[in-house]
Design brief:
With about 270 residues, this protein is mainly α. It is built from 10 helices and no strands.
Length: about 270
């Protein structure tokens, strides 16, 4: 069995938690799939992978663990989050074909996201020369993105605990309105960067680019859903409207303040 197929089956197995509750394909299934994929790559290439490749695997495991545990705890402890998560529109039974398509798509996306690390380790195993410097640079960027996301999640949890009925505009939320999504984009940018110098061939770069483009699209789609929800809740609040007008939604220093009108951002 090919290593790529093994990764896909691992991703399918872990993300199958979405069969219990559809949203889990994108939340718990996502975080813990990254953990499993990072571990699978390390195990498959334990005899040939370089230290930089193992570092990348470790970063994937730590990132996915933090995210998965955070999402699990938030679901259990946050009443406001459960209200959103268990919205009646999300509890409607999905057609079998739709669930199957989403399951396969998510599993493939998660594999494509980690593929630069997988291809680097695989090329090392094949005796192909790779440059470890780019792996370290990528790992540093990944740690920076994961740290930003963790800080954003912690600050939002604290702010919502202090005042559940107010939008969050303090801490890193002064920089952009979705700093957790920005952290996610930075993390996967680092993963993509780690593929430089890995002697990846054309189809490997296509897979890596598809994974990177896919997660960036998902983050902007998530930002749009959040914007629509916040506009509905806080739209009459003058302070919120000022915050929206002056704070970029996801990328700092770029004057993109709203993605509400971009209806193609539906995932």
């Amino acid at each position: 069995m090919s290593p790529f197929l093994i990764l896909f089956l691992v991703s399918m197995a872990v993300s199958a938690i979405g069969w219990k509750y559809f949203i889990y394909f994108f939340s718990l299934g996502y975080g813990f799939s990254i953990v499993a994929l990072g571990a699978a790559i390390a195990i498959m290439f334990c005899g040939t992978a370089s230290i930089p490749s193992f570092v990348l695997c470790a970063v994937l495991i730590l990132y996915g663990s933090r995210l998965g545990i955070f999402l699990f705890r938030r679901e259990k402890k946050s009443g406001a989050y459960r209200k959103i998560l268990y919205d009646k529109s999300l509890q409607q039974k999905k057609p079998l074909v739709e669930v199957l398509v989403v399951w396969v798509f998510c599993a493939l996306l998660y594999v494509a996201e980690v593929s630069p690390v997988f291809f680097r380790a695989g090329n090392e195993a094949a005796g192909i020369h790779v440059n470890g410097v780019w792996a370290i640079i990528g790992a540093i960027v990944m740690v920076a993105g994961a740290s930003l996301e963790a800080v954003a999640d912690a600050q939002k949890s604290a702010a919502k605990k202090a005042d559940p009925n107010r939008f969050v505009s303090t801490g890193v939320y002064r920089i952009v309105r979705c700093p957790n999504y920005l952290g996610e984009i930075i993390f996967w940018t680092g993963c993509f960067i780690s593929g430089i110098g890995a002697s990846m061939n054309l189809w490997q770069w296509v897979a890596a680019a598809a994974g990177y483009a896919g997660i960036v699209f998902v983050m902007f789609s998530g930002a749009r859903r959040l914007e629509l929800r916040q506009n509905k809740i806080y739209g009459d609040d003058d302070e919120y409207r000022k915050y929206v007008r002056t704070t970029p939604i996801i990328i700092p220093l770029i004057p993109l303040y709203s993605v509400e009108k971009y209806k193609f951002l539906v995932a």
